[in-house]
Design a protein that fits this description.
The complex is a heterodimer of chains A (about 280) and B (about 475). Chain A is of the alpha/beta class and about 280 residues long. Helix content of chain A is about 40%, strand content about 15%. The longest helix of chain A is centred in the last third of the chain and has 17 residues. Chain B has one domain. The interface between A and B is large, with 74 and 76 residues.
């Protein structure tokens, strides 16, 4: 299966040393060492990043909402096998529409080793709202600033160093359509996962009273649902009165939701979405 | 304390804490996220020019204008369908000129070697011929339609369609994003139904699910194209054939859109009562489509997938048709018995028994309706002509099997409105998790199909036409 693949920009750089370590594994995600989630606003090119890493053909389209369910694929980099999960694009993780639930359930309960937040360089401010919300849930975040070519055309410059300093996580500029920056992204993600790069994301703290309320709820949640990832986030959602989280806690479903996240996407939706029939 | 392990206590505690906080604490959090994002963005983003933003806006002023918006949309649809119709005819003829002689040669070879007639017939006249029909009729329109449509999608045109049509859906009590899900339905209704997840309101999502089938999918397009070319456009001079054929296919699509709106309105007045909800729709910047990628995904991936699915159902269907046509009971074949039994009902709808039988056999996949029907008309093994010649098909149907213009038009209407294919019904069940709604989707569509064809047939006959 080594014949050149015209659809895939990466193949143009097959002989480039940085890429010699990348092996696209398609849907063969049977045994993998690390899990990576791809999150981001709608229409920022998550599926394009997904395709260029896995060699799959998740369908892409220039409109918000193209990806409606989770798609999974795999790649191997420097001898480590990664499973990549493409999540539906969302503007926030706070309300409870179906696609937002898919995204946040996976980031929280799917135990991704790293979450890549794909952002649009031409609309960075709006994209950062979601980035900050993702960083509330998980520490291991890499921000990929996509569509750098489009930004350049529009005369927009993004200072990724300053962005990285402010956010407390690595920021990589990429152009997923052409494959530019993808190899740096791979290395950065690997560094974050293996602890070679430490992340210290900023958090929104709120008022001191709010902080106190959160702190007093955390031990209760840890006792009720032992082993739950990020009780702090659950505490915030409970204070907010999030009906889905309340329901999940009340009916003891947290454990079940956690288990579901690590199962394979069921074959039905896999056939339609991973193989990309949308 | 053991009581702490009860989740209910955690919820009560959370509620107490929530009430102790200032009422605006939620807004405070959202506000601080937004202001943080704003400050960070301000520090790291520098904008040096404005010019290409203006370009997108200028295009949008025309494409989404109240005057030009709809005409541009209709012209683009007509253009894509015209390219599909005119290209598909040529390619279909090429393919059938290759595949059908192979079938004749294979069957001859088998006979010469001395293989019994029933094995030869079953394999070559049944299974092989059904599959050859599928490839010849299905492949060309798909291979042209999918890439052209994906081109518009990658360009960023689809959200503009939703924008232009929003007022219509609002009037029907449905969601403006429903037009996006309908656009996906052109490719495949099952995919269209999955794409309704972008609609947040459960009520409006159900409306979009139940009406998605009124968009003719790629499995049904070939039927419409063949009937328009062979019947509607036949009386015009050859120069006009493809234009007239394309226009009548566009007309059928528009009837489908009207049905979608009327049924959506009906649903939101009755079993799915409610108001259309407000939503924001982002108009993304226009992007240059990646042509190589589009060709790859729509040809290798999508076309081959749909064709493969069609072939999988065509093989057993071809076998079934051959058996029905060759097992005789009381001197006549089973196929004739069944078709005769369905004939009165078919006649009332302006169709005939064979067409209804073809639709029953084609429930798993609509793609095989035309091949099934043609094979039954052609009988078992007497004629091996493929879909290469329009005159051949017209004479077979009109002169030998009693078709009229009414039959052709009613079959187009029936193809547009009838029940979803097996895969789509299953998808509706998966997405709604309810047998009730899956049944409703069949009732609504089949009811519309039967009602409309019955009315047109009756009216046409009263006027002494057909």
């Amino acid at each position: 299966m080594n014949k050149p693949n015209p659809k895939n920009p990466l193949d143009n750089c097959e002989n480039c040393p940085a890429f010699s370590q990348l092996e696209q594994m398609g849907i063969k995600t049977g045994d993998f060492d690390r899990i990576i989630a791809l999150a981001g606003n709608p229409n920022t090119g998550k599926s394009t990043v997904f395709n260029s890493l896995t060699g799959l053909n998740q369908h892409t389209g220039n409109w918000p909402g193209k990806t409606v369910s989770r798609a999974e694929g795999g790649y191997q980099f420097n001898g480590i096998k990664y499973k990549l999960v493409d999540l539906p694009g969302t503007y926030s993780l706070l309300s409870a529409s179906q696609d937002e639930e898919v995204a946040r359930n996976f980031i929280l309960f799917g135990h991704p080793d790293c979450t890549i937040v794909v952002t649009d360089a031409t609309a960075l401010e709006r994209n950062l709202n979601l980035t900050i919300q993702v960083m509330e849930i998980t520490e291991k975040v890499v921000v990929a600033v996509n569509l750098m070519d489009e930004a350049k055309r529009k005369g927009i410059e993004v200072d990724t160093r300053s962005l990285s300093r402010d956010l407390g996580v690595p920021v990589v500029p990429i152009t997923a359509r052409t494959g530019e920056g993808i190899s740096t992204l791979l290395t950065t993600v690997a560094d974050v996962i293996e602890g070679r790069t430490l992340t210290k994301p900023i958090h929104i703290h709120g008022t001191p009273e709010f902080q106190q309320a959160v702190e007093s709820l955390i031990p209760l949640i840890e006792q009720t649902a032992p082993g739950v990832p990020n009780p702090r986030w659950i505490a915030i959602r409970l204070l907010d009165g999030d009906p889905k989280v309340q329901e999940a806690l009340k009916t003891n479903q947290l454990a079940q939701i956690m288990r579901e996240q690590n199962q394979k996407v069921d074959s039905f939706s896999k056939q339609i979405s991973v193989d990309g029939r949308q | 304390m053991a009581d702490n392990f009860d989740p209910a206590n955690v919820l009560i505690k959370a509620e107490q804490l929530r009430n102790s906080l200032s009422p605006a604490f939620r807004d405070d959090i959202v506000q601080s996220i937004y202001s943080e994002a704003e400050q960070i963005a301000k520090r790291s983003v520098r904008s040096t020019s404005q010019k290409s933003v203006d370009f997108d806006q200028r295009v949008d002023q025309i494409v989404t204008s109240p005057i030009f918006g709809l005409p541009i949309m209709l012209s683009l649809l007509a253009l894509i369908i015209w390219i599909t119709v005119s290209g598909a005819n040529v390619v279909s003829a090429w393919i059938s000129n290759i595949l059908f002689p192979i079938g004749a040669w294979g069957s001859q070879l088998f006979t010469q070697v001395g293989i019994p007639w029933y094995i030869t017939g079953f394999l070559w006249d049944g299974i092989y011929r059904a599959m050859a029909w599928i490839v010849a009729v299905m492949l060309p329109p798909m291979a042209i339609f999918f890439p052209s449509f994906t081109l518009l999608e990658d360009l960023g045109y689809l959200p503009r369609v939703a924008f232009n049509l929003d007022w219509l859906y609002k009037k029907a009590g449905a969601h403006g994003k429903q037009s996006l899900t309908m656009a996906m339905g052109f490719g495949c209704n099952a995919a269209g139904i999955i794409s309704t997840r972008i609609i947040d309101s459960p009520r409006e999502r159900l409306i979009a699910i139940l009406t998605n089938n009124f968009v003719p999918c790629n499995g049904r397009f070939p039927t419409l194209i063949m009937l328009s070319t062979v019947f509607v456009a036949a009386s015009f001079s050859p120069v006009w054939t493809s234009i007239i054929a394309a226009t009548s296919v566009v007309g059928v699509v528009l009837i489908g859109v009207i049905f979608t709106l009327v049924v959506s309105w009906g649903l939101s007045q009755t079993i799915l009562k409610g108001q259309a909800s407000a939503f924001t729709l982002e108009l993304p910047p226009y992007r240059r489509p990646n042509v190589m990628r589009i060709l790859y995904t729509s040809l290798v991936d999508r076309t081959i997938f749909v064709l493969g699915r069609a072939l999988q159902t065509a093989a057993p269907a071809g076998a079934a048709i051959w058996l029905l046509a060759n097992i005789n009971v009381a001197g006549t074949s089973l196929a004739t018995h069944t078709a005769n039994f369905l004939q009165p009902f078919g006649y009332a709808l302006g169709l005939d028994g064979v067409i209804l039988l073809a639709y029953i056999i084609a429930i798993p996949a609509n793609e095989i309706v035309v091949p099934t029907m043609m094979m039954m008309y052609l009988g078992a093994g007497s004629m091996v002509d493929g879909p290469g010649s329009n005159e051949g098909i017209r004479s077979l149907l009109m002169n030998q099997n009693g078709w009229t213009m009414l039959t052709a038009i009613n079959l187009m209407l029936f193809a547009l409105l009838h029940n979803p294919c097996g895969t789509t019904i299953l998808t509706i069940y998966h997405e709604t998790k309810s047998v009730k709604w899956a049944v409703w989707s069949v009732v609504i569509t089949l009811g519309s199909a039967i009602g409309v064809t019955f009315i047109t047939a009756t009216v046409a006959r009263l006027l002494g036409w057909g």
